[in-house]
Specification:
two-stranded antiparallel sheet, 4 helices, 6 strands, globular
Length: about 120
Amino acid sequence: MSKLATMQLPDSIHNWLRDFFTNRYHCTRYAGHLSTVAGIKASVIQGSGLGPASYVVTAADLHPCTVGNLIFKYADDTCLVVPATNSSTLCLEIEHIGVWAAQNNLTLNCGKTKKW
């Protein structure tokens, strides 16, 4: 069952949101050239007006595995904070987020991942 289906929404809002997230396509125009049209299969449509709100709904069930670790969620981004006392749990947490992302049709951007 989708997260949208489990929310208590009026039918008209539910149907509007379902329609918004279904059968979406994208192409890019750059320097006078137009890319081929591709279907969007992500659960959060980046750059849309509903993107940040949809991420909030999508990420509602994302929580750290270990007490003391924290997950902060911003518009369409997530930050995991693991204190030094829990450093041994870092790989477990990253794996957990990766599984969650795959289940929600999202991918981790490893290029943005930083360890301080």
